[in-house]
From TrEMBL:
Keywords: Sigma factor, Transcription, Transcription regulation
Keyword Transcription: yes
Domain RNA polymerase sigma factor 70 region 4 type span(s) in chain numbering: 131-182
Family matches, as Gene3D superfamilies: 1.10.1740.10, Winged helix-like DNA-binding domain superfamily/Winged helix DNA-binding domain
Keyword Amino-acid biosynthesis: no
One Gene Ontology MF term: DNA binding
GO BP term, pick one: DNA-templated transcription initiation
Residue intervals of the RNA polymerase sigma-70 region domain: 36-98
UniProt superkingdom: Bacteria
Record's protein name: Sigma-70 family RNA polymerase sigma factor
SUPFAM superfamilies: Sigma2 domain of RNA polymerase sigma factors, Sigma3 and sigma4 domains of RNA polymerase sigma factors
The species this protein was found in: Paracoccus haeundaensis
Family from the record: Belongs to the sigma-70 factor family. ECF subfamily.
Length: 187
């Protein structure tokens, strides 16, 4: 871990502590440190900028309310913040009401854009230059793609199986073994 990464990690820990204590500067600090990256992740998942902004705002409200639930020994503050955002984005996608004004062609284009993240090297930009990027790079391509389809693009195991043309059990195994390798690599 670089000094810059450690410093950002400590800043995010302090920001979450501030949120848990009801101090609004915690949210400001999170947005100062990770705001543009958070919006970028939401935009990659949701494609539409207005929905990405909505997801980010909703995620910040959830982070404010639930900051006390994040346990420092059970993962990083950054990982927890991104998980909250990702889950909010996936909820918006599942809800579908906001997407109903889109034509079938636009919906297909959104799905294709989600899939494209996992085919080229865009995932490296998302993971950054830290340890996560190195660990993802160490995975074999099918496992990495399956994990990214599930945890970044929000596909179900069945959808991943169909998209990769493999049996459901194979897709699940790739994800399970890949996540185990990531855990080992990151610890």
């Amino acid at each position: 871990m670089t000094d810059d990464t450690r410093q950002r990690s400590r800043q995010l820990d302090r920001a979450l502590t501030a949120c848990a204590e009801g101090r609004p500067e915690g949210i400001d600090a999170i947005l100062d440190i990770e705001g543009s990256q958070l919006l970028g992740v939401a935009r990659r998942i949701l494609i539409r900028h207005d929905l990405a902004e909505e997801a980010l705002q909703d995620a910040m409200v959830l982070i404010w309310r639930k900051a006390a639930q994040q346990r420092q020994g059970e993962g990083t503050a950054r990982g927890w913040i991104y998980a909250v955002l990702r889950n909010r984005c996936l909820t918006i996608l599942r809800d579908g009401k906001r997407l109903s004004s889109l034509s079938p062609d636009e919906l297909t284009r959104m799905q294709d854009a989600r899939q494209d993240l996992c085919h080229d090297d865009d995932w490296k930009l998302l993971a950054g230059k830290g340890r996560l990027g190195e660990c993802l790079d160490a995975l074999d391509d099918p496992a990495r793609r399956a994990i990214l389809l599930a945890h970044v693009a929000g596909y179900s195991h069945g959808e991943i199986s169909a998209r990769q043309g493999v049996p459901l059990g194979t897709a699940k195994s790739w994800i399970r073994r890949g996540l185990a390798s990531l855990r080992e690599c990151l610890s």
